[in-house]
């Protein structure tokens, strides 16, 4: 602010007023006023010419729309300032009117040329006080429906008149709904379903028109993907399958390893159980045999004879040994643990066979001396 | 004699064709080219698309990015009435221009999520130059700018009947779907199988098989299943111009955020991180100074009454 005195500036600084904001505020007011005036004028004009408006050539609208677009493309820089402003206002009003007539509900806030566009999202994280001073701006939407339809009309193929085989395009009867675009699986599924339904419909139509649809098996021609490309894809598929198989195998092996120990333990236990059972059997048989000594004619024994023989047929080791060996074994022992054989234990210390109270009291005859003993012999 | 017969039969044929069609024929030719500075993926995608468009004419890269109106002359030179132009920016962003050559309209779109046939490893395949079925979402008919887009897709991706290198059978389908304000494009092979038999191709599409069964229901017709061929890409419309590479803008997408802006915002965010931290440090220093905890700077601590210097002064 070069035209303000220093004192005033200082005062303003003290108060904390922002000149830019003030300026913006003023501009807003001005713009609102202008708009209101123009709007009323325009509306009255519109009302007068409403019935004519319907019948008007598209060209006129086109022209207006074009000029509007030109402004936004900033190609109308050479125009005079005042005139430009006028025109701009007109154009903006036209724009919004045409939009609303087309059922568009875009909230457009027109703005002057030198103001920068500020997106709405940036406004949300401002303070309340600052918000009051701001004029919200948005990027201007250009949607010149009239020009668009005109352009479409110019290039459009007469699809309804053409036979289907000319264009081969199918539009779905209902819009494809995709809830979440980032959900890959469902999105692709929707695309797939759309194309599939189109194909089914197209096949019906093409067959009705007598156009060949299916490629015969013996029709060979260049494909979009070359053979080497397909070979690569095949190799990749095989690779994938192989790796899948390998990983499955590895998992199986791991599981086996985990359970292998349990299996082994179970087997050992089974073996143990079997042995115990046979031992039991033998014991019972032995008991039975002892009973058979008393009652030789026991019916049960008579049936068990064969089993007895079977089990008792094999003579034990002790039976096979000669008497000499048996004696020696009894004396010196055979087999078994050799260690701590001579050390005392509970049994040996409790054994009082070699003890007599008499001997302890010295009552027993003393051993004669050596000479006497020798003399005695 | 043979020539006479030929000429006679030709005239006959054309006469038959003329009244039967009644209206103008669907006659399209597409000029396919890119700007300079595209990456290999962009180039491969362009090749893939060119292989799908037998009515296309591939040309060398265009030297300029600012004088795109030159494309009109090029199209005229090659007798093309459509232009399909890849514009690469900064070696990473790809914009797709589609235009009806002599007098518009032109559509500029941003291409994202592009995957070429080569890198997708799909098992589908189709004849080079067979005519596709174009499947459009019905949302394309809701608004005028979308209808313009649909018409352009129809002209450029639809192979006209009797195009020079086209093949007589229909074995692939192109899907154009509108979702999230973007156009998603997919290309599938049409796989026909006997109703009872299940081929290996079906196994790959195991996920979708059930649905297919439901749809076809049976009958003596062959079952149809689709196998994707590729490529895949997503387009975001940006602007529509009335002329061909020129003229007033008749549609602009408000929701489009340019990739430059996205990148700059990310950068700003990163820069903001450091700034916030630095500010915190300064604040802490100031706080300490305020409490008189710093040796230099800040306020000196208040003299305590019981300080030794005070007591024994």
From TrEMBL, chain A:
Domain of life: Eukaryota
Matching Pfam families: Ebp2
GO cellular component terms given for this protein: nuclear periphery; nucleolus; preribosome, large subunit precursor
Keywords: Coiled coil, Nucleus, Ribosome biogenesis
Basic and acidic residues: bias regions: 40-50, 268-283, 316-333
Spans annotated as Disordered: 30-134, 267-377
Gene Ontology biological process terms from the UniProt entry: nuclear division; ribosomal large subunit biogenesis; rRNA processing
The UniProt record lists the keyword Coiled coil: yes
Biased composition (Basic residues): 367-377
Protein name: Related to rRNA processing protein EBP2
Source organism of the structure: Phialocephala subalpina
UniProtKB/TrEMBL annotation, chain B:
Pfam families: Brix
Stretches for region Disordered: 1-24, 293-313
Ranges where the Brix domain occurs: 28-246
Sample GO molecular function, one term: 5S rRNA binding
Compartment(s): Nucleus, Nucleolus
GO biological process: endonucleolytic cleavage in ITS1 upstream of 5.8S rRNA from tricistronic rRNA transcript (SSU-rRNA, 5.8S rRNA, LSU-rRNA); exonucleolytic trimming to generate mature 5'-end of 5.8S rRNA from tricistronic rRNA transcript (SSU-rRNA, 5.8S rRNA, LSU-rRNA); ribosomal large subunit assembly
Biased composition (Polar residues): 1-12
GO annotations of cellular component type: nucleolus; preribosome, large subunit precursor
Record key words, sorted: Nucleus, Ribosome biogenesis
Listed SUPFAM superfamilies: Class II aaRS ABD-related
Family of this protein: Belongs to the BRX1 family.
Name of the protein in its database record: Brix domain-containing protein 2
Protein source organism: Phialocephala subalpina
Classification lineage: Eukaryota, Fungi, Dikarya, Ascomycota, Pezizomycotina
């Amino acid at each position: 602010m070069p035209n303000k005195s220093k004192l005033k500036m200082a005062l303003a600084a003290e108060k904390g007023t922002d000149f830019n904001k003030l300026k913006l505020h003023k501009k807003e007011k001005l713009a609102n006023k202008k708009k209101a005036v123009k709007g009323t004028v325009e509306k009255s004009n519109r009302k007068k010419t409403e019935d004519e408006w319907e019948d008007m050539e598209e060209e006129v609208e086109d022209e207006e729309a074009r000029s509007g677009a030109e402004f936004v493309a900033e190609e109308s820089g050479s125009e005079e300032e005042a005139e430009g402003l006028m025109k701009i206002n007109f154009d903006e009003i036209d724009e919004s009117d045409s939009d609303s007539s087309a059922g568009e509900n875009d909230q457009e806030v027109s703005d002057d040329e030198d103001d920068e566009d500020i997106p709405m999202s940036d406004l949300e994280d401002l303070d309340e006080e600052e918000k009051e001073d701001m004029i919200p701006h948005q990027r201007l939407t250009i949607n010149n429906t009239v020009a668009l339809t005109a352009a479409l009309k110019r290039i459009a193929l007469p699809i309804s008149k053409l036979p289907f085989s000319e264009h081969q395009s199918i539009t779905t009867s209902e819009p494809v709904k995709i809830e979440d675009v980032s959900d890959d699986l469902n999105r692709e599924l929707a695309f797939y379903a759309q194309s599939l339904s189109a194909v089914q419909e197209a096949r019906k139509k093409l067959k009705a028109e007598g156009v060949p649809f299916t490629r015969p098996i013996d029709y060979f021609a260049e494909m979009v993907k070359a053979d080497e490309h397909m070979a690569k894809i095949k190799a990749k598929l095989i690779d994938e399958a192989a790796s899948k198989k390998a990983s499955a195998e590895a998992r199986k092996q791991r599981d086996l390893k985990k359970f292998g120990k349990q299996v082994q333990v179970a087997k050992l236990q089974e073996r143990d159980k079997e042995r115990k059972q046979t031992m039991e059997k033998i014991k019972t048989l032995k008991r039975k045999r002892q009973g058979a000594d008393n009652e030789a004619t026991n019916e049960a024994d008579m049936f068990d004879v064969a089993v007895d023989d079977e089990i008792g047929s094999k003579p034990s080791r002790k039976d096979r040994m000669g008497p000499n060996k048996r004696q020696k074994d009894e004396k010196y022992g055979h087999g078994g643990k050799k260690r701590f054989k001579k050390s005392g234990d509970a049994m040996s210390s409790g054994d009082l066979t070699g003890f007599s109270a008499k001997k302890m009291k010295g009552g027993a005859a003393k051993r004669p001396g050596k000479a006497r003993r020798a003399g005695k012999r | 004699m043979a020539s006479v017969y030929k000429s006679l039969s030709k005239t006959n044929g054309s006469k038959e064709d003329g009244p039967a069609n009644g209206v103008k024929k669907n006659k399209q030719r597409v000029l396919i080219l890119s700007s300079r500075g595209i990456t290999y993926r962009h180039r491969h995608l362009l090749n893939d698309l060119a292989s799908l468009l037998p009515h296309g004419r591939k040309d060398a890269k265009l030297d300029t990015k600012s004088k795109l109106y030159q494309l009109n002359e090029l199209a005229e030179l090659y007798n093309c009435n459509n232009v399909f132009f890849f514009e690469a920016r900064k070696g990473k962003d790809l914009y797709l221009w589609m235009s009806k050559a002599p007098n518009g309209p032109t559509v500029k779109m941003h291409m994202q999520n592009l995957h070429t046939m080569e890198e997708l490893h799909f098992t589908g395949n189709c004849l080079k130059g067979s005519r596709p079925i174009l499947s459009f979402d019905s949302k394309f008919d809701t608004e005028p700018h979308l209808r313009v887009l649909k018409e352009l897709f129809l002209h450029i991706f639809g192979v006209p009947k009797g195009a020079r290198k086209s093949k007589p059978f229909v074995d692939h389908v192109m899907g154009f779907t509108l979702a999230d304000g973007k156009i998603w494009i997919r290309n599938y092979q049409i796989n026909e199988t006997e109703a009872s038999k299940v081929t290996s191709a079906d196994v790959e599409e195991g996920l979708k098989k059930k649905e297919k069964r439901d749809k076809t229901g049976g009958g003596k017709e062959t079952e149809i299943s689709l196998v994707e061929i590729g490529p895949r890409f997503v387009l975001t419309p940006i602007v529509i111009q009335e002329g061909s590479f020129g003229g007033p803008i008749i549609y602009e997408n408000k929701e489009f955020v340019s990739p430059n802006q996205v990148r700059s915002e990310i950068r700003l965010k990163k820069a903001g991180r450091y700034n916030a931290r630095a500010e915190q440090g300064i604040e802490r220093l100031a706080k300490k100074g305020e409490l008189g905890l710093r040796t230099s700077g800040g306020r000196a601590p208040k003299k305590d009454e019981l300080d030794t210097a005070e007591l024994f002064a």
